[in-house]
Inverse folding.
């Protein structure tokens, strides 16, 4: 599933082609995706001017004239791709929502597995939407500090990896970037979350910020379906240090016999990659 860097990258790509433009045509090709499309979606999109974009966790919010925001979630296989009007290639299969603007740009929401969603919410009440309410702090904002993270983790007896995947603790993190951040911070994914406040949180917060910023700069990670808004792949997967590298040498270790390389365990049904020597 696309995580914060992928969603941020797609959102920036959409903003570059949609912000300030008027949606002259909107169309849906089915009744919905993960959930039904909201009543009147096409009518409320058609004729609206795109005022701006905001990301909250793994969700995009496209703010429209008239006071609505279109809330968009890519799900597991979703992608939003912009193309010029009249592009030679036909619209891709599984395109469930399409938009056209006054300058001829077309944007399609393609989602073969239909785990994505689109909804409408008053812009003034975005944070009260059922999918956003209760979400934790944004990790790239100044307000996300070691103290804030430590307070959220205090007393939690779950492994730190599971705690960081909880969107109520911190917004937008997923399996890839939690693994990479814990490696950079030298913290075992099996360590209990309640032991992180203090010195470990002071290492972990900068590691989270750094890995997310680097992933955004690289256009995110393309593993299966994810592409940027212009159709290009992301490239951060070429920089993974531990994620999906079971058995590979740890970048920080001298090799056997001191270190057997990147290990893989399963936590809460998800693969976790780490170095048992450097992450404690």
């Amino acid at each position: 599933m696309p995580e914060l860097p992928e969603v941020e990258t797609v959102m920036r790509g959409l903003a570059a082609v949609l912000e300030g433009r008027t949606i002259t045509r909107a169309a849906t090709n089915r009744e919905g995706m993960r959930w039904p499309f909201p009543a009147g979606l096409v009518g409320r999109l058609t004729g609206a001017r795109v005022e701006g974009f905001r990301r909250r966790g793994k969700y995009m919010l496209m703010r429209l004239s008239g006071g609505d925001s279109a809330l968009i979630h890519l799900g597991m296989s979703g992608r939003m791709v912009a193309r010029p009007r009249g592009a030679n290639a036909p619209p891709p299969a599984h395109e469930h929502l399409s938009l056209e603007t006054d300058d001829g740009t077309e944007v399609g929401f393609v989602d073969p597995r239909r785990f994505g969603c689109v909804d409408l919410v008053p812009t003034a009440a975005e944070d009260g939407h059922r999918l956003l309410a209760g979400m934790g702090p944004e990790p790239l904002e100044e307000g996300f500090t070691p103290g804030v993270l430590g307070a959220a983790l205090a007393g939690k007896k779950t492994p730190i990896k599971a705690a960081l995947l909880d969107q109520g603790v911190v917004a937008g993190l997923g399996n890839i970037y939690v693994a990479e951040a814990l490696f950079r911070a030298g913290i075992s994914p099996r360590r209990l979350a309640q032991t992180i406040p203090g010195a470990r949180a002071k290492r972990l917060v900068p590691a989270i910020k750094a890995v997310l910023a680097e992933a955004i700069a690289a256009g995110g990670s393309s593993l299966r379906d994810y592409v940027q808004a212009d159709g290009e792949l992301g490239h951060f997967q070429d920089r993974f240090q531990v994620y999906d590298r079971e058995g590979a040498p740890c970048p920080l270790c001298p090799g056997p016999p001191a270190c057997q390389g990147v290990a893989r365990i399963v936590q809460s049904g998800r693969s976790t990659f780490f170095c048992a020597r450097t992450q404690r």
Remarks:
- The mean pLDDT is 93.
- The first helix runs from residue 4 to 18.
